[in-house]
Amino acid sequence: MVSTFLSLPSVSPSAALSVQDKCKDTMKSVTSFQSSFFGKDKQPLSMKTKSHGRITMAVAVKASRFDNITMAPPDPILGVSEAFKADTSELKLNLGVGAYRTEELQPYVLKVVRKAENLMLERGENKEYLPIEGLAAFNKATAELLFGADNPVIHEQRVATIQGLSGTGSLRIAAALIERYFPGSKILISSPTWGNHKNIFNDARVPWSEYRYYDPKTVGLDFDGMIEDIKAAPEGSFVLLHGCAHNPTGIDPTPQQWEKIADVIQEKNHFPFFDVAYQGFASGSLDEDASSVRLFAARGMELLVAQSYSKNLGLYAERVGAINVLCSSPDAAIRVKSQMKRIARPMYSNPPVHGARIVANVVGTPDFFNEWKDEMEMMAGRIKSVRQKLYNNLSSKDKTGKDWSFVLKQIGMFSFTGLNKAQSDNMTDKWHIYMTKDGRISLAGLSAAKCEYLADAIIDSYHNVS
Amino acid sequence: MNSSSADRRLYMLSRHLAGTISNEGSGISSSPTSAGNSVFGNVVRAPEDPILGVTVAYNKDPSPVKLNLGVGAYRTEEGKPLVLNVVRKAEHLLVNDRSRIKEYLPIVGLADFNKLSAKLILGSDSPAIQGNRVTTVQCLSGTGSLRVGAEFLAKHYYQRTIYIPNPTWGNHTKIFTLGGLTVKTYRYYDPVTRGLNIQGLLEDLNSAPSGSIVLLHACAHNPTGVDPTFDQWGQIRQLIRSKNLLPFFDSAYQGFASGNLDKDAESVRMFVSDGGECFIAQSYAKNMGLYGERVGALSIVCRNADVASRVESQLKLVIRPMYSSPPIHGASIVATILKDRNLYNEWTLELKAMADRIITMRKQLFDALSARGTPGNWTHIIKQIGMFTFTGLNTKQVAFMTKEFHIYMTSDGRISMAGLSSRTVPHLADAIHAAVTTVG
């Protein structure tokens, strides 16, 4: 990799020398002092003379205080992209991380985002600190987008919203809120779920357990298992639900199933916690993808909802999201918002302004908003069409008559192929197709041109590898 | 089942029994939340943040002479926020570059930004960098860098106590506590001399258990503006190394304090050049005026490259469950400026201009108080360095100044010189004079 940056003007030699000379003098006088002190230190040490160019310093080369730190394993999801980059095969295909790609398999910055950024540049806005809760215009827009601008919960001011660092950051704030105000309460997460959910709740010290979700036999939803496990949990537990486009399976409950899930949650006085990372991206319709959240809200339930604009506005690296707490009264919303601020302040003080301004401008400007909806439909449409093409290829090429229709039933960026770890490894090792070991593929990384190749690989891995 | 969840169950039960929740015969009880009762009943309203809350109060004040000397954000002579020219230039380059994309940054952030930030604070010829002993991760400004560092230490370091100066920035204690560390203080400010209590500082650090973490403000101490001299830094370094204490630098004002980037990094470089380990939190909020973009970096200088690489891998495990990866915009602006010789030079000029304006405000305020014959010794105003002045005013006097003169500042008597202008200095001087002469 070529280093392209210029060298910085270096410290003036005389200044450097004087600092180092002074250190040298000081070091000389404390060397004997230090050697007696170091002897008492826990860690083994040896005295060694080190040369630093012009000066020689007697430096006690002690073991580092961090010697016992082990090398952490690479992130299972992000590590896939790294392996992909290293692969030199022309056939390689990256179906690892969930970032949208065009048919040409290029990253995509939405046109409306570029327009908004240009507008922001022209206006020459300042870069003052946002309030701890984030950009007011963004918070208003995001809550309205989620619940619908004419939803009574908005008019009644019952939603506490603070801007968060995309989905992850918003989940983390909510987790910290749970830990502080509902100590001992646990959160139920689907089996499987996004890999980082467990890390977030672990670091926030919120205990979790799993509810059945994915049924490998049907490559569909284990609805009875899900209901049973939610029912069996201690009353007042939190239940993490994917608002739409479940990650990693792509399997969503039907509207009727959502009703039943809401029933059992109410029965057990559980607290629903939605992770909404794909609003508009799943079906192509913002309202349709928010229907699960709105169903619960309409029942008068209190909710936690984490939102992300990484995918639906393609703002991945800008880290834009929000945590919403729908409370039963405006007074509770005020209090809850104030406490979420207390969690954010010692974490990062206030959130980044750039991405939030983009969202506020897009949502707040009718032309931009309409353009956004069109682009979102386009992205969701492309994914639906590669699903169809993949399914067509699988069903026509697989002579065993295996039912591949789950590919069409699943929704959103991801698909759970039903492949196990060995089969997923085969996808990579033999076919240079990169995916996560749980059998998840990102359809956002699939082009129409590659559907046939992918179908061949899946069929081979499924039938010839165990 | 622990007692807290049992308590919660009892709470729910008692509300059922009190009839505040109706259980109709439908077989589905309405959730407690749907009856207008909130599970957040026990959540009290938090007070406003003591520092950021000053701006909230200021915004509510309708007075035309109000003055915000609370939060440390630079203001021009016209009292306006400033976006540096060089930042605007960099932004134009970035936004107009159609090849730029918004893909997730790596967990550790923008690679260029990290390398350039390390060079900025350590010096581009730093042996620590050349020896690959430094790991640098992009974080959310100073706060985020401190928090990630704290969480890392709480997880991996055998000493869980951090010593912070008394006084220090209001957010430090909360950051370290929530990060999992125990916070103790060391003496720092001497209210009698309005200078550094070096003896107290050295005594307190000397009695700290070996290996304890020590927070040091690299320059322009917040809130006092009192910095150790070069020789005093030497003494501090000696003591810290002899007790095997772990220094954690908070560098929020590099270049902003004296106007010179290298000078403001002297303390950090002194420590690093002795070969020892340290943590450094950097912020670009003030020196590049990137406040709301949240740009900063955490650098950990380790004994050797192998440790640095393992430490970096563990830092990722702290960051991923907190916010996955940092925001790209501000870091890209910084990298664009730092890597281009012309932009870098332009930046140093704009930085010096900001620092000079603050030094001018110090002189003007001092002169104004002298002219009014305000009782007391006010030389600390010109001796202290950086954005803030610790006036020495007490909370009663501060409250008086807010009420009578619409001057907003933190209750510890700290004022942000960056919020002053030639036009408003007389008003502030009048306020201080009145407070000192009429309020005890």
Automatic annotation (TrEMBL), chain A:
<feature type="domain" description="Aminotransferase class I/classII large">
    <location>
        <begin position="92"/>
        <end position="458"/>
    </location>
</feature>
<dbReference type="InterPro" id="IPR015424">
    <property type="entry name" value="PyrdxlP-dep_Trfase"/>
</dbReference>
<keyword id="KW-0663">Pyridoxal phosphate</keyword>
<comment type="similarity">
    <text>Belongs to the class-I pyridoxal-phosphate-dependent aminotransferase family.</text>
</comment>
<dbReference type="InterPro" id="IPR015421">
    <property type="entry name" value="PyrdxlP-dep_Trfase_major"/>
</dbReference>
<dbReference type="GO" id="GO:0004069">
    <property type="term" value="F:L-aspartate:2-oxoglutarate aminotransferase activity"/>
</dbReference>
<dbReference type="InterPro" id="IPR004838">
    <property type="entry name" value="NHTrfase_class1_PyrdxlP-BS"/>
</dbReference>
<keyword id="KW-0032">Aminotransferase</keyword>
<dbReference type="Pfam" id="PF00155">
    <property type="entry name" value="Aminotran_1_2"/>
</dbReference>
<dbReference type="InterPro" id="IPR015422">
    <property type="entry name" value="PyrdxlP-dep_Trfase_small"/>
</dbReference>
<dbReference type="InterPro" id="IPR004839">
    <property type="entry name" value="Aminotransferase_I/II_large"/>
</dbReference>
<dbReference type="GO" id="GO:0030170">
    <property type="term" value="F:pyridoxal phosphate binding"/>
</dbReference>
<keyword id="KW-0808">Transferase</keyword>
<protein>
    <recommendedName>
        <fullName>Aspartate aminotransferase</fullName>
        <ecNumber>2.6.1.1</ecNumber>
    </recommendedName>
</protein>
<dbReference type="GO" id="GO:0006520">
    <property type="term" value="P:amino acid metabolic process"/>
</dbReference>
<dbReference type="InterPro" id="IPR000796">
    <property type="entry name" value="Asp_trans"/>
</dbReference>
<comment type="subunit">
    <text>Homodimer.</text>
</comment>
UniProtKB/TrEMBL annotation, chain B:
<protein>
    <submittedName>
        <fullName>Uncharacterized protein</fullName>
    </submittedName>
</protein>
